[in-house]
Amino acid sequence: MHKLALSLAFGALATVALTAPHANAETDNIVTLTQTPCQFVESEGTDHAYTSNSAADCKTINATSATQRVAASKVIKLKPGEYTFRVTNKNVPYGLGFWLRGQGVVGRATLPSVSGGGLTTGATKDYKITLKPGKYYYSCPLNPTPDYELIVEG
């Protein structure tokens, strides 16, 4: 397995693993994301160690901190192509999901989207999508996380 570090806004790094069982690396792009209560760790660059027993807990936490956390979060930048978003539920005691979609009304109507649930505590799921150029958000409505930004250019 080869690893490729992607540059994110604010000079931080996220890791995209490129697995190569065959010659077409374009179909093997894996973006690894970890959900802890109320957040995606890679997006924020740290695990805030929030405690949550329900979505309501995250709504309360995000009401006072989400704006500042999103402003300081890393923007994932990718090239167009096929990707697998590998999402893990780390220590969240209820089922989670993942939702990647275009920004705004036009973005939601014209850009691809992927979503799903069933991420129990400790579980990892893959969400496959072919990304086109544009601006996207990703989040978990069940964990409630902020909307994090992903930009596809190239």
Brief descriptors of the model:
single chain, 154 residues, alpha+beta, Immunoglobulin-like, five-stranded mixed beta sheet, 11 strands, 19% helix, globular, disordered N terminus
Question: How would you characterize this protein structure?
Answer:
By secondary structure, the chain is α+β, with helices and mostly antiparallel strands. The protein is globular. It is built from three helices and eleven strands; from the N terminus they run ββββααβββαββββ. Strands 1, 2, 3, 4, 6 and 9 form a six-stranded mixed β-sheet that branches.
Rg from alpha-carbon coordinates: 15 Å
Shape: globular
Low-confidence blocks of residues: 1-27
**Second CATH tier, the architecture:** Sandwich
The count of helical stretches stands at: 3
State mean pLDDT (0 to 100 scale): 86
Based on secondary structure, the structural category is alpha+beta
How is the CATH topology named?
Immunoglobulin-like
Give the strand content: 35-45%
Major beta-sheet overview: 6 strands, mixed
Order of helices and strands: EEEEHHEEEHEEEE
CATH top level assignment: Mainly Beta
Tally the structural domains: 1
Q: Helix content range of the residues, please?
A: 10-25%
Query: How many beta-strand elements?
Result: 11
- How far apart the termini lie comes to 25 Å
